[in-house]
Amino acid sequence: MNSPGRVIGFVNAAHFIDHYAMLIFAAAVIIMGPALGMAYSELLPYATPGFIAFGAGSLLTGWLGDRWSRRHMMVIFFIGIGASMVSVGFVQTPAQLGAALLAIGIFASIYHPVGTAMIVSYADRLGREMGLNGVWGNLGVASSALVTGVIGQYLGWRFAFIVPGVVTMLIGIAFAMTVIHEDRKGSKQAAAQARVAKQDMWRVVLALLIVVIAISTTFNAVTVALPKLFAERLADLTRSPALLGVIAACVYVFGAMTQYTIGRLLDHYSLKTVALPLSFMLAPFLYLAASLSNLPLIVVSIGIVMGAFGQVTVNDAMVGKYTTEEWRSRAYAVRYFVGFTAAGASVGLVAWLYEQGGFVTMLHAFAALCLLAIAAAIILPREIRTPAAA
Question: Which interval of the chain is the signal sequence (predicted)?
Answer without folding.
Answer: none
